[in-house]
Every structure is written in C-alpha cells, then in structure tokens.
C-alpha cells in the first residue's frame, strides 16, 4: 500500500505491517520454515517471518503440498458436484414444472426466484478457479478469486433468500397440486423443497473449506491474506443469509396469521410487504413515573 505498508504474516496472523518492520530476503529463503528471529514475512514478496512457538502442522514441505493438493481436489469436486446438481434440479424439475402449464407464470417466478442467475455466477466462478488451479496449483489464488466474487454472490443470495420463504409457502399452500404435478415427473415433494434450499446450504461450506486451504499454505503464500479474509467474508454472508431468511419467515407468518390486534389478516395483506421487522420495548410512561415516585419516597 502507499505509505510503506506491506501485507504479511506473523505468528499465523496475516495483516499489514509498516515497511520499517520488514526485510527483503533472497528468493531461495522465501519458502523455508520461519526463522527464530526477525521481522514479519510478507506474502509473495520474499520477506522474512518473525519468531513463533507454534507447533508445525506438517512434518515437511512435501506433506504440506500433498495436503493442499488434496484440499484443492476435494474443493473442486465439491464445486463441480454442486453446480451439476443445481443445474440438473433446475432443468429436470423446475423447468418441467413450468412446462406442465399447471401453475401460472407468476407462481413459477416465486418458485424459482433468481436461481438461474446464481447458477450462471457459480459456473463462472468454478471456471475461474479451475483455470487458476490448472495454471499453477501451488500458488493459485483461490482465496482471492472467492473474495472478488463475494460481493456479487452476496447480492444474488440476498435476493434468493428473501424469496425462498415465499417459495416454500407457495408449495405448502398448494400441496395437493404440487404433489400431483411432481408425481407426473417422478419427483417427491421433499426433493423439491430440499433442492430449493441447496444454494444457501452450499454457501455454509465455504468458510471451513477456506480454513483448510489456509492450513496448507506457507506463511509467505501470496494468497494467504485473501484466504483468511475470504473465510471471514463468507462466514458473514452465511450468517447474514440465515438471519434474513428467518426474518422473512417471521414476516410471512405475521401476514398470514394476522396476529396484530385490531388489524385482520386480509387488511394487513392490503398494505403490501413488510419492509422491516424488529423487537421493540413498549413502556407505560404514567406507570413508570408513578413507580419512580414511589421509590423516591
């Protein structure tokens, strides 16, 4: 960064260090085990690491590389399986539901949400990751690619999670119709509901996968910082999407139950969607003042 700050790793923590706290070392020393004394090692720029008392996770550089290779292999397989499964679910189930002409176009849009956009985004991300891994598996910046993709993925998942409770409610309100329709295409109702939840269930796998990738990295790996940040970002996205779905479920329940005193369910629905829902404290000011006065006596 401008002003003399470098990204680096010290005692397994990656962050930014002032330039006067680091030294450039030779290329041959970059991936040696951490030295007993010295300034932080800066990622990908040939700089030395400080002292550490941590027990090494790997007995040799070979075992570290083998571990990273296996994690990368498992990750790519998981991503490919996810993209394939969600694509098949869209093509073999959702599109057939639409082609049956048994539900309206409006209901179909509620059912699928923006799933097709999510599939396209995930397929592009998988392509970028595969290309990086094939080009240079040792130094592939998987964390950087995921960090770059995170803002768009967060936006798409926000829209999907906002819609998901509506899709499930639509299915359950018309359960008989959907059971008949799905029986014609040999798909159980539970598979339809499970398939619709697959995008945010898959999202929850990213933080742990990124943590495992980091375990297989040298302290000087150029992707270490981005991998740590990506793990935190995707954990935040998963928590955000989970909270958003719960809030939308509560809003939907409130609209259908009509549990607001003096406001019937049908009248409540005429007001449109609930924009925000939260917990508030309601206090009786007069009673509170009288209580305070009694305490002062």
Automatic annotation (TrEMBL):
InterPro entries reported for this sequence: DBL_dom_sf (IPR035899), DH_dom (IPR000219), SH3-like_dom_sf (IPR036028), SH3_domain (IPR001452)
Domain spans labelled DH: 67-244
Polar residues composition-biased segments: 49-61
Pfam family, one: RhoGEF
Cellular component per GO, a single term: cytoplasm
Keywords per UniProt: SH3 domain
Annotated SH3 domain residues: 1-27
Keyword Transmembrane helix set for record: no
SMART domains hit by this protein: RhoGEF
Gene3D superfamilies associated with the record: Dbl homology (DH) domain (1.20.900.10), SH3 Domains (2.30.30.40)
UniProt entry tagged with the keyword Transcription: no
GO molecular function, one term: guanyl-nucleotide exchange factor activity
Span list, region Disordered: 35-61
Stated name of the protein: Uncharacterized protein
